[in-house]
Amino acid sequence: MEYLEMDDNILTGALPPELNSMTNLKYLSLANSKGLEGVGSLTGTLPPYPDLVHLRELYVDGNDLSGPIPSDLLANSVETSKLMSLGLTHNRFSGTLPRTLYRFTHLQLLIEGNQIEEMPDDFCEMEKWMDGLVGQYGCDAIMCPIGYASPLGKEDGDGAECWECPNGKEGAPYMGATWCLGIDENNNIIPEEDTAGIKGEDVSEEKKGGIHGAAVFFICLAVLVVPISAFIIRKRLAYRRDQGIEKTDEVVNPTPFTVHAKDEGENLGVESHPDNVPGVHL
Prior knowledge:
15 strands; 2 helices; globular
């Protein structure tokens, strides 16, 4: 087997060291979309997998892996001069990036959203890393430094730049931060008493009431919007029937839902199809 992908599953527990015996693997992905309902999360540390000598793509993004990235990661690789992609984003990896990654000459190192505190200065000279962006932006192309943040956790040359957090290291205590903690939408520092819930402190009853009120508002809004949208769609469908328009699979009214029309008098079935082009199907 050369290709193994098990993304967005309900896998839990540690990464199995037995994967190291699949020596023909070139692609291995156990990435997750954090926040997606029904998706598991792998824990523990990242095995070095030294015998996966042909592996060129490894993705474990969006899990709950922790500890340092092993210094002997893919230690016996024979692909060091080819493009290598390591997707390790949004875990809890900590410490310093291992200098041994220096042996990969064309590395795509995706590492933002972790708890990394340091990387070797040599990495800033790897001009072919990150599709050549390190040659333009130095280490910022790998991760923003501590005290800085970017939507991508790095500088990509396409609008994502590392900016300094107004509250410095308190806002971005680790490298590769994707936002500044304790900052509102206007880039102002939130008073400490307003961030009590973030730090695990007790939130006043008044603030709880505000939070609950906001939740009720959005729930009510959703309750109103969905029936109104269904009513409008049903009117469109009735108009098409009155005009004698033949049934078609063509998308006629893009909407966040896919609505299938049934016979008159029946309820409309509303389904979410995030992977398809949304619309109304007759």
